[in-house]
Amino acid sequence: MSPSKATMVTLALALLVTLASGHSDTSSVLLREDNFESALAADNFFVMFYAPWCDYCKKLAPTWAQLAEARNNEAAGLVKVGRVDCTTDGDLCTQHDVTGYPTLMLFRKSDTKQGTKYRGGRNLELFNAFLNEQLGAASGSTGGDGEKEDGSDDDVPTPPTPPASPLLELTEDTFAKHISSGKHFVKFYAPWCGHCTKLAPTWEELARSLEHERDIQVSKIDCTQYRPICTDFEVKGYPTLLWIEDGKKIEKYTGPRSHDDLKAYVAKMAGGLASLAEGGEDGAKLEGADKEDNKSVVVQLSEGDFAHAIAKGVTVVKFYAPWCGHCMRLAPTWEQLAEKLAARTDVTIAKVDCTVDGNKELCGDQEVNGYPTVFLYRAGEKVTEYYGPRSLDDLHEFVVQHLAQQDDGPHDEL
């Protein structure tokens, strides 16, 4: 094959690879090691780091081309859209800690070293919302038809909160006054955030389930519109859920985001809920809500009496937190287990509330890493942790097996 034919074949193959990769568009700026720093020195850049063989990259390519066509054609655009092929410029991708494809990063003008990773959904609306929020545009150009430059949001399809909803949408004018007194559970969010969108219906449900709790308010605030407030409360990711009392941040919620888990957390922070104390619409009951019930045969232990309580015989201890949904579900079964073994004098069924002052250190010493945790002790020594199913029969069988091991003679059953 002649050199000219070989060259033509090579170019043809390169073209086929380019077309197959989905990056045949010329809208986005191809960034390489020789032009990366100069390009980013002149403009803000939203960059896709990709590999031609990556299926996710191919799927994203048409949307990326649309975004680039809209953004890069603006006369004085807010941001340019580019791409880096990590199969040809691997060092550049390594420099920016690209470990998967596609990786999307926003670089602010003149900052070629530190980019902000985009972690939201991959469509034009979310891309534009992210760029406008990160770069400080009120609403800016959306890259679509009917875009506005006066800062109004008439074309943004954000449905208003129904008037009847107990979930409060806070603003710059209402935030400070609203949280100045009482107990508040506040969601700090961004419209483009996928996790925020997923949480939205659950947050609405939480607000409705707590609307009759006089001392507790559930609310939310859009950090893309009221960024200074979110900055003051050290919000660094979305959604951020903060418990606030009398205007002061108490703590950040980091637990599961189901309705039951969120409601249990509120109950814990508020010192109980009227709806739970009365059984609530779902009949839920906080772990430990039966402390005044004299019929309970589960022994409540604390740091002061723990060592003495486990010193003799077999003691099976459940370490829990009142706000833990799994703990609440286990509570009635734990009571039944204690009742079933009440006739035995060589076994004690007990529990420890790890949220109580003094008990926190105890739970740490016992290496409790999650709730509920069940440990079996014999003569003061930890023997094993229970990992099995949490039915009454399974728990009973677990205890019986260990009781049989300590008896003098062999026993097949209790």
TrEMBL record:
InterPro entries in the record: PDI, PDI_thioredoxin-like_dom, Thioredoxin-like_sf, Thioredoxin_CS, Thioredoxin_domain
PROSITE patterns assigned: THIOREDOXIN_1, THIOREDOXIN_2
Gene Ontology cellular component list: endoplasmic reticulum
Annotated Pfam families: Thioredoxin
Biased composition regions of type Acidic residues, renumbered to the chain: 147-156
The UniProt record lists the keyword Metal-binding: no
Region (Disordered): 138-167
Keyword Signal applies: yes
SUPFAM superfamilies: Thioredoxin-like (SSF52833)
NCBIfam families given in the database record: pdi_dom
Family indicated by similarity: Belongs to the protein disulfide isomerase family.
Protein name, as recorded: AGAP000044-PA-like protein
Organism: Anopheles sinensis (Mosquito)
